[in-house]
Structure prediction request, 336 residues.
Amino acid sequence: MFEADTHDVLQRSFTGDLPSKERVAQAVAEAHARYAGHTDGAVADYIPILAEADPNWFGISLIDVFGGHYPAGDTELKFSIQSISKAFVFALVCESSGHAQLHQQIGVNNTGLPFNSVMAMELNNGSPMNSMVNAGALATTAMMPGESAAEQWENIRSGLSAFAGRQLELDGQVYRSEMATNTRNKAIARLLESYGRITRDPLEIVDIYTRQCSLSVTAHDLAVMGATLADGGVNPVTGEQVIGAETARDTLALMASCGLYERSGEWLFEISLPAKSGVAGGMVAISPGKGAVGLYSPPLDSAGNSVRSQRVCAYLSKALGLNLFASSAQVKGNNV
Prediction:
């Protein structure tokens, strides 16, 4: 599905820098014009407030590792970050707790099942499997440093703000709407507690997790956050070292294998970019060493991933040579 309508795009195949600024700006504008009229997918409605989104909203923002900005469309519209927060909270916890502890406590393998699956845990002796699904995200949030729930929440908010390069704020309306309907996450948290994967009050963890998902961002914010991972943990806009390069690498590896839930294998095969989606319609896709694309388009596919955003990523991956595995044959000289 990802490459079906990109067959006429000239594919660049290289592992170096991005093309010229003019070419990047042109490609982003072309992608927006190409997919603005697509109407596939449906706006999420299981969280009532999300159902109010206009399906025509559509923004693309590309930020390179030098801070260059290439926008098209509704890049300053605010929406809730939702599951995209999972990747960046993983990065913060990985930075504080270490690679080995997260690997042991939560895991890094794809479940192959929907993002809110309970069966995945039961089939794996209580293991959340990875931090990109709800069970793993709850267990990861529970590992955030802090003596109290309030301190944990503030560490998450300030940490994600450092990724974005500005102070992110809670969307109270989204938070209240989610808290009124998140009975499944409460059940998952209780199940995690029964397996010893959460040692704090599970309902407090659900509250913190719901708050992190309710942070308000824009497509531009997501691009800056992704570009921070692309640049070894350095925010290319503020210059702040948010996380270490090894943590950025670990985060990108997990996003590549698990970021699009049960569609992750197909995504990696076709698009080959670490990415993470959110049920509000946001998406971030990252080309290590080059930059990141932040996107917003509310209509989703059956797995909960933005339809237009996936198509844009497919287009830009080919047009700009973003593919993680792309390479071209080198001219070989005589070995003397």
